Every structure is written in C-alpha cells, then in structure tokens.
Amino acid sequence: PDLIQTICLLNATPIWGSNLPGWSGDLPPPFIPRKVGRFLFGNIRNLDTIGKYLSAAYFHRDAFDDTLMKQIRACTEGKGGHAAFASILWSPPAKFSTVR
C-alpha cells in the first residue's frame, strides 16, 4: 500500500464502444447520455458498490477496509467525472489497421 498513491477503478467494458447514434463521444455529452452517465457513475462510486467490487476481488474481507473504500471514492470526486464516464461508455470503438 505504501507504493501506491492513487487508484481508480473504472470498467465500462460491458457497453463500452456502443457507438451511440448521433454522438461521437466528444464532451460535453448530449442530455440523455449525460443523465445516464451521471446515474451509472453515481452508482459505481457508491461506497456499497465499491465494497461489493472489492469483496469480489479479495477472498478475505480483511484485505481492505473502509479507509481504502473512501480513498477509491475520493478519486471520483473531481469535477466532470460523470461526463467523462458517459463519453467512455458511448464512444465509438477504436479502429485499428491490420499490420501485414
């Protein structure tokens, strides 16, 4: 723990790259993606949700404590996090050229 100053857990892979029609993923997001992004972001950064994620990651509950959960949440308290999260959710998937 002394080697890590900050960690941010964010995984939008279930619907990442959905390529929402009519929006390129640029900020600021339109009304609907912004509202959905704000709702999901609020749920993900909830201390109960963070605790559930950590419980799934660690076999022993004593491997983490409330302080760690609050430190993880603190990473999400910057301005505009929900908008960035919405952009991640609905940005078009990356296109890679095939190297031959």
Mind explaining what this structure looks like?
- This protein is an all-alpha fold and 100 residues long.
- The protein has a domain at 31-86.
- It is 44% helix and 0% strand.
- The protein contains four helices and no strands.
- It has helices spanning 31-44, 47-57, 66-74, 81-90.
- Helix 1 crosses helix 4 (81-90) and helix 2 crosses helix 3.
- The longest helix has 14 residues, at 31-44.
- The radius of gyration is 16 Å and the shape is globular.
- The termini are far apart.
- 13% of the residues are buried.
Topology (elements, then pairings):
Elements: H1 31-44, H2 47-57, H3 66-74, H4 81-90
Helix pairs in contact: 1-4, 2-3
Distance between the termini: 43 Å
Largest sheet: none
**Shape label:** globular
The helix content, as a percent range, equals: 40-55%
* Rounded radius of gyration (Å): 16 Å
Estimate what percentage of residues fall within beta strands: under 5%
Give the helices and strands as they follow along the chain. Answer: HHHH
Mean pLDDT: 79
Q: How many DSSP-defined strands?
A: 0
Structural class: mainly alpha
InterPro entries: PPH_chloroplastic
GO molecular function, one term: pheophytinase activity
